[in-house]
Design a protein that fits this description.
Radius of gyration: 18 Å
Shape: globular
Strand order of the largest sheet: 3-4-2-1-5-6
Low-confidence stretches: 1-15
CATH class of the domain at 24-150 and 195-244: Alpha Beta
Number of strands: 6
Helix content: 40-55%
Mean pLDDT: 90
CATH topology of the domain at 24-150 and 195-244: Undecaprenyl pyrophosphate synthetase
Strand content: 5-15%
Largest sheet: 6 strands, parallel
Length: 254
Amino acid sequence: MSEIQSRPLYLASSADKPDHGVQHLAIIMDGNHRWAKARHLPKAAGHRAGARNVAPLAEACADAGITCLTLFAFSTENWARPRREVSLLMDLMRGMLENDVDQLHERGVRLSVIGDRSRFSPDLQGHMERAEALTRHNTAMCLNIAANFGGRWDILQAARQLARDVASGRLDSVALESMDEAVFSRYLSLGDVPPPDLCIRTGGDQRISNFLLWDFAYTEFYFTDVFFPDFDDVQLQRALASFTERQRRFGRRP
């Protein structure tokens, strides 16, 4: 089989598992524009406020015992936004990779960027590679930044890689016929990382917006009207408390 994407599993031991039960948390960071509008500020101010909230929120997740955090930062559809806004978002991503990675590294956070990087500028791709190299051996928590990411793209690129492996002979007919969901998942961007237990969407909208379509099969969802720049540790604890009240049956009878 080809060198399909494989990441270390960040699973807490039974003694270390947090009371809330969330090991992998996904967040759709929404509401930056409306946060700024409510304060009579330019749209750019909202995006900057949202970017400033990423590192503190990641640290709050680490303090809460979450072992993997996946943030939806920039979707494949976001390129359709006005050019000036896209340029600002690229600058903010660059700034986060330049200024916040050392702090995250000190906390033992391993950073990975998932998505199609080919459309990003060479210097931004370089920042991504350097951040990943710096934090590669950290094990306290994994932080996945989904950038130029789409759930449909993720499944499509996995299918393309699978087809290439079959065509090249790296995957024979016996392996193909016996392939199960766990093996196919390794072709996806999250690789061996367990799927999210909980997905939080800030900003009031209640939709997936082409995020982790395969991985969300049995993920619980928490929607809040709080805009992402205001989503802090208190809001995080409310979301985690909501999760503890749910019964996850995975299709089975209670």
